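Progress report, Aim 2. The chain analyzed during this reporting quarter is listed below.
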Amino acid sequence: MEVEVIAHNPRWKNEFEQEAQKIKAIYDDLLLEIHHIGSTSVVGLKAKPVIDIMPIVSDINEVDKFDDQLEELGYEPLGENGIVGRRFFRKDNEALGKRTHHVHVFDQHSHDEIIRHLAFKAYLIAHPDIANQYGNLKSRLAVTYPNDIESYMAGKNEFIKETEKQAVTWYEDKPSH
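Predicted structure tokens for the chain:
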């Protein structure tokens, strides 16, 4: 897949909301919360145009029962895909040959993973200078590795890990989040 980083698109919020409604209808009573995460959720941040969605469910073991319904929406179930206790799905627009959505489902007890995602988003929103640094890094990496997603991801890793540490500390110190 081509690595493309573009300016923030205000339509991403609506795309999230539309897809979230479909996911809510599938998971129904199992779903506790659903969040727009990742770079497309941060207004002004350059991003790959892939909407990241994080449903939080009451029991992760029940999620697999709904794989067929998510497949009907165009999602490919990939199991934990490297994060224990998560269920990961991806969706592509076949006609365009582009990825459009990622769904990261976590159990309500996956506190550290949930906080990591929510803190990173909140931190970038509260610190536009850091969000700008991150966006510029992603743009440079996309130009350097236009057809190499692994190298693109590896190039972001140190920035993300360091920023996540700061974000989680900052987030957990806030009186209310």
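The longest helix spans residues 149-173. The chain has a mean pLDDT of 95. These observations will guide the mutagenesis work planned for the next reporting period.
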